[in-house]
Amino acid sequence: MTPREMAPGVFSVGVVDWDRRIFDELVPTPHGTSYNSYLIRGSEKTALIDTVDPATFADLTANLERLGVEKIDYIIVNHAEQDHSGSIPAMLDRFEGVKLVTDQKCRDLLIDLLRITEDRVVVIGDGDTLTLGDRTLEFIIAPWVHWPETMLTYLREDRILFSCDLFGSHYATSSLYVPDEGAIYESAKRYYAEIMMPFRASIKGHLEKLATREIALIAPSHGPVYDRPAFIMDAYRDWTGDGVRNVVVLPYVSMHGSTRAMVDHLIAALVQRGVMVQPFNLTKTDTGDLAKALVDAATVVIGAPTVIFGPHPQVVSAVYLANLLRPKTRYATVIGSYGWGGKTVDTIKDMLGRLRVEFLEPVYVQGYPKEGDFAALDRLADEIKKRHEEAGIIPA
Ligand code: FEO
Q1: Whose Cα sits closest to atom 3 in ligand 1?
Q2: pLDDT for 315-333, tens place per residue?
Q3: I want to staple 388 with a disulfide (CB 3.0 to 4.6 A). Which of 103, 201, 324, 394 is the partner?
């Protein structure tokens, strides 16, 4: 993307990756992404905030050439992950004398991951500042945005927060600023779910730290810039808060229709009781959509058939992911069908050890569900409704 000026002497010089469809070989990116990098020209010094994915280094240098940049004094490294740091070695070769400015943990990771030498790094601490002449950069150490070394950079005179992954979205757009708050809300929520949800407590702390600061723009390292910062900060407060919604997330697999019959019955029973349901057929589901749904759902019901003696492998994968992401879900259980035996329910329960959930009575039946099994699903729907009423998220 061509350079765009955000404030006098402050430019977005990063790259839009329209075609990227998988990130870290893990996270689907249906809307592409961007690797944002920002150039700040002070009256005495020039700084670059983060670089770009190394595969797109040529696009970053083309943007710097378009702006006639011949010298960079500092590269501010907010995060060591390679989609932002990966072009640093090439930048050090190209801009002689440029110094990397970052925190101690990030310095160690840069040395470890990118073979950067110590003499190229200036280490800063929380609250430290760096002057560029008429501009001042202030550093805010913010560990565990999703790695231990993350930090944010605040440009005081222009009140711009360079937040790196925090507040980001995998969303390719030609617009510098948020083009559509509805679309960006969904992408940012998905992004939060995929990488930040396990660190909800840390993110909450960072939000509190930022609350008293005047912020005109939030410039993340993925997706468009927020010219209405309250929009994304309010969304983050909601996602990281303790509140849950009157929703049952229902990931399932059905091999021969028995589990599917139970899923369909439970959906109808829950809807009749005023509980919303988001089912995900795991043989067709985008895992990012499932992660996003887990951000604030009160309950998860896992629909799992037994394969040989345990859960279907695609259920195992989804349960493993949910356990890693550690959503604030309050209630969980399993429904499904087996042929002749197995330990599906116990295996799933054991896999959810990181979640602080109350485990409701499962409905796990042999073969195709019978009348009594459907009645048990109705009782499960009653139980879920009762729990949601007690949590104050469904009208009594
Ligand atoms: Fe966008 Fe954690 O890197």
Answers
A1: 81
A2: 999 999 999 999 999 999 9
A3: 394
Question: 322: helix, coil or strand?
Answer: helix
Task: Let me know: does 147 contact 133? Beta carbons within 8 Å.
Answer: no
Q: What is the CATH number of domain 4-240?
A: 3.60.15.10
Question: Rounded to whole angstroms, how far apart are CA atoms 1 and 382?
Answer: 54
How far is it, in rounded angstroms, from Cα 137 to Cα 135? 7
At the topology level, CATH places domain 248-387 in: Rossmann fold (3.40.50)
How confident is the model over 340-380, as pLDDT tens digits?
Answer: 988 999 999 999 999 999 999 999 999 999 999 999 999 99
> pTM (2 decimals)?
0.96
Whether residue 292 has pLDDT greater than 80:
yes
Distance CA 342, CA 364 (A): 11
CA-CA distance, 133 to 178, in Å (whole number)?
Answer: 30
What does the domain layout of the chain look like in residue ranges? Answer: 4-240, 248-387
Q: Are 105 and 98 in contact (CB under 8 A)?
A: no
Q: What distance in Å separates the CA atoms of residue 192 and residue 137, rounded to the nearest whole number?
A: 26
Q: What separation in angstroms does the CA of 259 have from each of 264, 273, 311, 374? A: 9, 21, 12, 11
Q: What is the DSSP string of 51-64?
A: ---GGGHHHHHHHH
Q: Report residues whose beta carbon is within 6 angstroms of any ligand 1 atom.
A: 79, 81, 83-84, 146, 165, 221-222
The conformational region for residue 210 under phi > 0 = left, psi -120 to 50 = alpha, else beta, is alpha
For residue 26, the model assigns a pLDDT of: 87
Q: Quick one: which atom of ligand 1 is closest to the CA of 195? A: 2
Q: Using the mean position of ligand 1's atoms as its centre, give its distance from the Cα of residue 80 in Å.
A: 8
